[in-house]
Specification:
Ribosomal Protein S5, domain 2; 9 helices; about 290 residues; about 15% strand; Butyryl-CoA Dehydrogenase, subunit A, domain 3
């Protein structure tokens, strides 16, 4: 399913902006792109999406804009003073040149300790921004899902109508075949003084009725349609279950088509298979 969500959270460390977008995918796949020193982005996005999204390729874009004062706080001033004192004492004792600021900044712990502390502080606002974006993202997908569900219900109804028509026509096929065969035999034997064997005609009609019997396929199709409606009504992630049911519907439709000996049934089978294919396309996009 497609969907989109965005949110931003302002914090003393800066502004955290998150944007989520998704395209159709059979399974859940996430990809994250971040701008700025934001930690644990991938893990945060994946953890908050799990349990709320089942299908889709979700792309997350995370942007961090630091507050103006954060650049200055990247240096631990206390560590700087301690390092400067140690280096100055060593330089004086060794007769070396006076210590420069750049020399002090190279001492481990002078630069980055406060930055790491700020990084820890960023987890809460980052999580809040991602959570808000996920909420909006899920809401947008739910709206799309409702529209898709309405279309799926329409297609299920059309398939059910086709099944009903096929069932009615199939029941009439043996009698119609017997009448056509009788008329044809009467025409061929007219004036010959020969009469056809009614028992042989009955056997021929019975063979055709057996070959073209689609009652079992009709019953299974009706059961699949009922099940699909129930699954859709239950809500939640239904895409994979509907996938399986549509495969079964298509199998039954193909079998009916192979057994069809009546043109009207063949035409309705074509219509039904077209709707089953449209249904399959819709369901592949449904979570």
């Amino acid at each position: 399913m497609t969907g989109a969500g965005a949110a931003a959270v302002d914090h003393e460390t800066g502004r955290y902006a998150v944007e989520l977008r998704s395209v159709n995918h059979r399974f859940l796949k996430t990809s994250v792109r971040s701008h700025g020193p934001v930690s644990a982005v991938d893990r945060t996005v994946e953890e908050l999406l799990k349990g709320r999204v089942v299908r889709g390729h979700v792309s997350a874009y995370v942007r961090f804009t630091p507050a103006p004062r954060t650049a200055a706080t990247a240096i631990d001033e206390e560590a700087f003073r301690e390092a400067a004192a140690r280096l100055t004492a060593l330089a004086s004792a060794s007769g070396m040149d006076p210590v420069q600021v750049a020399d002090v900044l190279r001492v481990p712990g002078v630069v980055g300790e406060t930055a790491r502390a700020r990084d820890d502080q960023s987890r809460a606002p980052l999580t809040d921004a991602v959570r808000a974006a996920v909420d909006e993202f899920v809401t947008s997908r739910r709206r799309e899902g409702e529209l898709m569900a309405a279309e799926i219900r329409t297609l299920l109804g059309r398939i059910a109508e086709a099944v009903s028509d096929i069932s009615a026509h199939a029941a009439e096929v043996p009698a119609a075949y017997r009448d056509r065969l009788t008329a044809r035999l009467d025409e061929l034997l007219e004036g010959s003084g020969t009469r056809f064997d009614p028992d042989q005609l009955a056997r021929e009609v019975a063979l055709l009725a057996d070959r073209s019997d689609v009652r079992e396929e009709i019953a299974r199709l009706e059961a699949h349609l009922q099940h699909a409606s129930e699954v859709l009504a239950a809500g939640g992630p239904v895409g994979r279950r509907l996938d399986f049911l549509i495969q079964e519907m298509n199998r039954e439709a193909n079998t009916i088509g192979s057994k069809a000996v009546d043109l009207s049934i063949s035409r309705r089978v074509v219509d039904m298979k077209s709707d089953v294919e449209r249904l399959r396309e819709q369901v592949q996009n449904l979570e």
